[in-house]
Amino acid sequence: MTQHTSTGVVHLTERTPAVTGTEMLASLVPPPQFDEATFDSYRADPSYPSQEAAKQTLQRFTGRAAPTKKTGLFRRAPKEAPMKPGVYLDGGFGVGKTHLLASVYHALPARRKYFGSFIEYTALVGALGYRNTVDLLRGAELLCIDEFELDDPGDTMVMTRLLGELVASGTKLAATSNTPPNALGEGRFAAQDFLREIHAMSDSFETLRIDGVDYRQRAIDGSAVAMQETEYTRCIADAAADGVASDDAFTDVIRHLAQVHPSRYIRLIDELDLVGLREVQVLTDQSEALRFVAFVDRVYDAQLPVAATGVPLDEVFAEEMLGGGYRKKYLRAVSRLNALTHSASELSARIV
Questions:
Q1: PANTHER family recorded for this chain (predicted)?
Q2: Which one, 73, 110, 147, 217, has the greatest CB density within 10 A?
Q3: How far is 227 from 31, CA to CA, in rounded Å?
């Protein structure tokens, strides 16, 4: 359990958090679950050599690669070409991209460095203005951007311009992909689509493909856990006994998310030990579904168990959505919800 100033049951729908630009900047660090992430703790799947290859390239990017061995008695190893100022991790969800991104953050010795999701950086621009954000970030040795999104052309071009100015001033960049996959072929990210979108910066990035399967599903049997009302009530009560649990009707939360900017979703779950969602229903509205995905991302970053009743959360997105342009996002959210509901189920089992 985390440290609390209070215990009990709270309602997300009663929270209307505000976040200042200064607070946003201070929060640009890896999520708690990646506080100790290192290249050594990244477990590359031997079935997918691209994982180990990406790790080695990133170690070289941070200056932490092992010295290249000589190839003969007096022969020097061939000199490697200098790396570009940016690396872009391109791969499916659950292959460890965020772990590797956090490893870059921790491994690169820098006085000033930042780690945040695409939406956190765009929110910073929204709060401070473009020029103030550039001035604030200029001089940083490293910017890590998780889940670079191409959903909003305006936000994408703002970020493109921002990153271009920072690279020109000497900042290194590391990013992971998260883009609508309709034109990507089998749900995969096409590096060229990204490079075209940031045409002014295409020469600044080295794209690293990471193949693999979703690690979250390796240890999970079946789908998301939907609790019966009695189990749900017991789970909420137990979490609230020595911590803080939220308890809200799913539809009320969905409505509330529309009133809170996604950059503030992290504050909705401040101090929580468990998120409770009653009577989950299938989402058919794209905007509601995408807001819920953003919320799930923050809950997953905080590693909060999710207790839920109603429709299992791996079925929360309508079938037509799973076949549409945001399929990759929804599947990533489903993967995370499966893991988080299993965590809540394990807590519930220990209560009995």
A1: AFG1-LIKE ATPASE, ATPASE N2B
A2: 147
A3: 28
Contact by Cβ (8 Å): 98, 34: yes
Q: Which residues, in sequence order, are CB contacts of 23 under 8 Å at separation 6+?
A: none
* Predicted confidence (pLDDT) per residue in 213-250, tens digit: 766 555 445 689 999 999 999 999 999 998 999 999 99
Residue with tokens 């690396």: 87
Q: What are the C-alpha distances in Å from 113 to residues 18, 27, 81, 145, 176?
A: 24, 12, 25, 11, 16
Retrieve residue 152's tokens. 């909003």
Q: Which of 120, 115, 124, 125 lies closest to 172 in space, CA to CA?
A: 115
Q: For residue 263, what is the DSSP state?
A: G
* E-strand stretches of the chain: 8-10, 86-91, 113-117, 142-148, 172-177, 205-210, 244-246, 248-249, 275-280, 306-310
Per-residue pLDDT tens digits for 66-112? 555 555 555 555 566 678 889 988 887 778 899 999 999 999 988 89
Contacts of 132 (CB under 8 A, 6+ apart): 21
Residue in the structure block whose two tokens are 């956190």: 120
Report angle CA 45, 49, 54 to the nearest 5 degrees.
95
More confident residue, 336 or 74: 336
Domains of the chain: 8-18+217-351 (3.40.50), 46-69+80-212 (3.40.50.300)
> Which residues have C-beta within 8 Å of that of residue 308, sequence separation ≥ 6?
224, 225, 226, 227, 232, 250, 276, 277, 278, 280, 341, 344
Q: 23-32, 173-182, 207-216, 247-256: which has the minimum mean pLDDT?
A: 173-182
Distance CA 218, CA 44 (A): 14
The kind and range of the H/E element at 350 are helix 327-351
- Helices and strands, number each (H, E), in the chain: 13, 10
pTM, two decimal places: 0.77
Q: Which of 110-114, 160-164, 192-196, 305-309 has the lowest mean pLDDT?
A: 192-196
What residues form DSSP beta bridges with 248? 277
